[in-house]
Amino acid sequence: MAEATATKEKPAAAEETQDLTDGFHLVIDALKLNGLNTIYGVPGIPITDFGRMAQAAGIRVLSFRHEQNAGYAASIAGYLTKSPGICLTVSAPGFLNGLTALAHATTNCFPMILISGSSEREIVDLQQGDYEEMDQLAIAKPLCKAAYRVLHAQDIGIGLARAIRAAVSGRPGGVYLDLPAKLFGQVMDAEAGKKSLVKVIDAAPAQIPAPEAVKRALDVLRNAKRPLIVLGKGAAYAQADDAIRTFVEKSGVPFLPMSMAKGLLPDTHPQCAGAARSTVLKDSDVVMMIGARLNWLLSHGKGKTWGEAPKKFIQIDIEPKEMDSNVEIAAPVVGDIGSCLSALLAAMGGNWPGAPADWTGSIAKKRDENVAKMAPRFMSNAAPMDYYGALGVLRTVIKERPDAILVNEGANTLDLARGAVDLYNPRKRIDVGTWGVMGIGMGYAIGAAVETGKPVLAIEGDSAFGFSGMEVETICRYKLPVCIVIFNNDGIYRGTDVNKSGGVDPATTVFVKGARYDKMMEAFGGVGVNATSPDELRRAVNEAMDSGKPTLINAVIDPASGSESGRIGNLNPQSALKKK
Ligand code: OXT
Ligand code: ADP
Ligand code: MG
């Protein structure tokens, strides 16, 4: 046994030669040394052999059908584990396919490293037309947190160390690592190669907030009459779950979770104000932001959403530049959320006054009204289903399996599921994020299943699913416990639009009527079900979640039941002519 372990842990380099190693093996050894044991990618020149060797050396290498989906899987792996997710692509087109996911990771503050093979520098720089020629480093730079190129085998260790630190320290983000084809074949002395590797120590050092910043924040919070805490996905990322819960409960302040922060404390928690969103944003007088930005999702902290009365903001964030980005921050607390909340808890002392009862009472009233208003809609047994009838089934599925991971994208499918499906544990809801991007679905589902081993329920609009649908083959190939439910309303927002020209082309937002997405899953050996009623949906989802078999359920939704752009129709520009 001991011998077997020793053989397994021997650097891959030593398997081929006693004295020499090369770029291929140094990259593999550097990844393993830093505990980066999973790669998401698409093979091809110049990284095909690298993928094979990495797999042979014990790294899990998951091959996708498109690099964007591999990239999204890597980005969500980074979010779920706090360790950079690795995406591996070929040069130019593969690199570009992966780049959207790298930019997405940076925008959402997820740690990720995109490693792409590239063509020969000498030819690229003289633009002499190499195979898949492109100056990838220059293109990646403005779209990610950091970008590096390694030209010499002896710099591989340092190059990867820099990439890891850049991805996870401070505000996490995406890093590009450019590895030219020639690097992989470079040979060097094995012992010197081993010594050149770097095991990154304390990659994301604690960032302790200043005591005066902590005191200032507590002074503002203590004097609030109508305080509110907004929890964002930075708080979920931080994995400071106990400290967050203790702080919220000790303060007695109502909390509003942003969509991916749902479940940090259960949505059913008595202090949860998720179902009284408009009221708390408008009427609060002090708002404490924890790992959430005042961007478009929070109307930039101003305007009608936030009401007329003056408001003070406290903001806890690892990124100092985030402060005052949209409105004045009265009490900035810069540091990592774990350290900040520990410091706040220590400074609060034993007798914190709690939130005023008239405030918490009025929120509870509004919340209960909204919950009561929604409840009967979940009972609808109509066929074809409307969104609420289908979501009534799925909210129970998650209630009964609070450990499952929910992936969610679409417009109506996203916005209605966000309110309908309560979450009970941290980091169990992953969705379109800061950009509201379609296409994260299957990449996230695969990444979440691989990294956590938990069952995944992906609630997908039929349009949203189309952006990554081919990965159902990947899900079947790796036998992942993923159940996809497609809310099939025949199109984007609704399937009822008509072409106003009267021509033969369908309207721009409608798809083939009555499409059977379930057949796609069957093509690859998975389970496909066509569900036309809530009862059929319930049966199929329960079976899938219990069996762990890759399943796709085509949930037939009334094509007329959605609204334009879900709940963000207000962001659609109006035609000037229409206004007149
Ligand atoms: O307080 P009030 O009274 O106001 O009530 C609120 C809550 O208090 C209450 N509530 C509850 N009540 C009862 N019970 C519970 N549990 C409860 N919880 C909450 O409900 C209301 C509403 O609460 P909510 O949702 O929290 O609040 P609100 O006001 O909506 O919040 C504002 C936002 C901005 C925070 C929120 O709306 C939000 O997070 N929105 C995200 C929106 C988003 O990102 N959308 C995706 C982009 S849309 C569009 O761009 C699409 N595209 C274009 C495209 C994209 N995106 N990407 C790429 C790469 N290419 C193109 C496309 C193609 S969507 C799309 C496809 C759409 O078609 P599909 O077929 O996929 O989907 P369908 O629409 O289903 O057909
Ligand atoms: P949401 O969309 O949920 O509102 P955002 O993505 O807008 O969340 O905000 C997340 C914020 O969390 C970012 O400003 C980021 O800098 C911050 N953040 C991420 N990780 C940490 C951490 N460990 N400690 C403190 N702040 C963090
Ligand atoms: Mg749709």
Largest beta sheet, briefly? 6 strands, parallel
Main sheet: which strands, in order across?
Answer: 3-2-4-5-7-6
Shape descriptor: globular
The total count of helices amounts to 25
CATH class of the largest domain: Alpha Beta
How many domain regions? 3
N- to C-terminal distance: 81 Å
Mean pLDDT equals 96
Fill in the CATH topology of the largest domain: Rossmann fold
Tell me the CATH superfamily of the largest domain. Thiamin diphosphate (ThDP)-binding fold, Pyr/PP domains
The amount of helix comes to 40-55%
Strand share of the residues? 15-25%
**Low-pLDDT windows of residues:** 1-9
Strand segment count? 19
- Ligands (ions, cofactors included): ligand OXT, adenosine-5'-diphosphate, magnesium ion
Which structural class do you get from the secondary structure elements? alpha/beta
CATH architecture title of the largest domain: 3-Layer(aba) Sandwich
Structure notes:
By secondary structure, the chain is α/β, with parallel strands linked by helices. It has three domains: 20-196, Thiamin diphosphate (ThDP)-binding fold, Pyr/PP domains (Rossmann fold); 211-364, Rossmann fold (3-Layer(aba) Sandwich), CATH 3.40.50.1220; 379-564, Rossmann fold, CATH 3.40.50. Helix 19 (412-420) links the parallel strand 14 and strand 15. The protein is globular and about 75 Å long. The relative contact order is 0.09. Bound molecules: ligand OXT, adenosine-5'-diphosphate and magnesium ion. Adenosine-5'-diphosphate (ADP) binds next to helix 13.
